[in-house]
Write a structure and sequence with these properties.
By secondary structure, the chain is an alpha/beta fold. The chain has helices at 2-34, 97-103, 126-139, 156-164, 188-196, 200-211, 216-221, 229-232, 240-251, 254-262, 268-279, 309-318, 340-353, and strands spanning 53-56, 62-69, 77-82, 105-110, 146-151, 169-175, 296-301, 322-327. It has a domain at 53-180 and 284-353: 3-Layer(aba) Sandwich (Rossmann fold), CATH 3.40.50. The mean pLDDT is 92.
Length: 355
């Protein structure tokens, strides 16, 4: 009997050991499976070459930028531009050269952290986005105040700048700013209704970005899981001009080329960190922002297939101090609208400076 108990005890111990070993093996496999690859930093061994002008930030990272317009020493207006998802430092407010010269406009676009030739930031956040904007403006000696504009997802840096550095801003332009459905200021019924109108893959991508950001890189790699239609390039575009622009960019190769340049240091450092910051848990709700001493303008197309116009309208109804400009029969890519950039500059700079 004693020997039997001993054998049973040994076998029981072995079973526990096997279970623990299997658990460790599975855990190790899963950890390695969800762990993103290291970034290919520009200028490092095996990394992309450095071709852009860059500044060194206080934390040691490099930030790439591109200047346009009149020389900043002669500029009457100085604008920093925050590009959207998949964009780059070359993205700015496109306007007629004659108007830029007439108004005396200097613009600087920059690769946001992890994009293009700007170093990745493993601690990316709303505050770090603001810090990058402010440090760039200071390094280029743009003065105590400057104008700030952003497009689409890049507007998270604009909202955060309104929150954290209002004393540095002379005026703000938000162009088709992306919305986080989980901002507390939205009525729950409205946010839920609009959320469910999205493609299933987009719903799940936003859900993972919010609840399990550590899983996002793995999730987006799985072809059998519902993932972002924006990244896959299959997002429905109800506006005819948007759809035409999308098809043309695929056919002429510009879409693939832009994506390759934007993500050359790694999808994790550009696209996925963007999603984690934009659709994750915000430190503040934009709808709680107080009226600003500077003008804020927001442009939105009523046929935008990426940013729900109903949520944008609600934000601007709550923030009545925002000058809301809704364009009829217009989609997300507002730069395709004839003379759009000219109108933004005239509105932001001339009307703002006269108030």
């Amino acid at each position: 009997m004693g020997a039997g108990r001993h054998s049973a005890g040994v076998w029981g111990g072995k079973k526990v050991g096997i279970v623990v070993a299997v658990g460790i093996a599975v855990g190790s496999w899963f950890y390695n499976a969800i762990k993103p690859p290291p970034p290919k930093i520009c200028g490092s061994d095996g990394g992309p070459p450095v071709t852009a002008t860059r500044i060194r930030l206080k934390d040691g990272r490099f930030l790439a930028y591109s200047e346009s317009g009149v020389p900043k020493e002669k500029a009457r207006f100085k604008i920093v531009f925050s590009h959207g998802f998949g964009g780059s430092r070359s993205d700015i407010l496109r306007a007629a050269p004659e108007l830029i010269e007439e108004l005396g406009v200097y613009m600087v676009g920059f690769d946001r952290a992890g994009y293009g030739e700007s170093d990745p930031n493993p601690k990316r956040s709303l505050r770090s986005a603001v810090s990058d904007v402010e440090e760039l403006a200071d390094a280029l000696e743009l003065g105590p105040k400057f104008y700030l504009a952003g497009f689409s997802l890049g507007c998270h840096a604009v909202w955060a700048s309104i929150k954290y550095i209002p004393e540095r801003l002379a005026g703000v332009a938000l162009v088709a700013p992306v919305v986080n459905h989980r901002w507390a200021g939205f009525p729950k019924d409205l946010a839920k209704e609009v959320y469910k109108e999205q493609q299933v893959g987009d719903q799940w991508s936003l859900r993972v970005s919010y609840y399990a950001p550590w899983l996002l890189h793995w999730w987006m790699k799985q072809t059998w899981l519902p993932t972002s239609t924006v990244i896959k390039g299959t997002v429905p575009l109800p506006n005819k001009l948007d759809l035409q622009k999308h098809i043309e960019s695929i056919e002429n190769g510009t879409s693939e080329m832009k994506k390759k340049l934007a993500t050359q240091q790694g999808l994790q450092e550009s696209f996925y960190r963007d999603m984690k910051v934009m659709f994750g848990k915000w430190e503040f709700d934009p709808m709680d922002l107080k009226p600003t001493p500077f003008p804020v303008h927001l442009w939105q197309g009523d046929e935008d297939g990426l940013v729900p116009v109903r949520l944008q309208r609600y934000i601007c109804s709550r923030l009545s101090w925002i000058n809301y400009h809704e364009l009829p029969e217009t989609g997300h890519f507002l730069s395709s609208v004839p003379d759009f950039g000219d109108g933004v500059l005239r509105t932001l700079l001339l009307k703002s400076s006269s108030t």
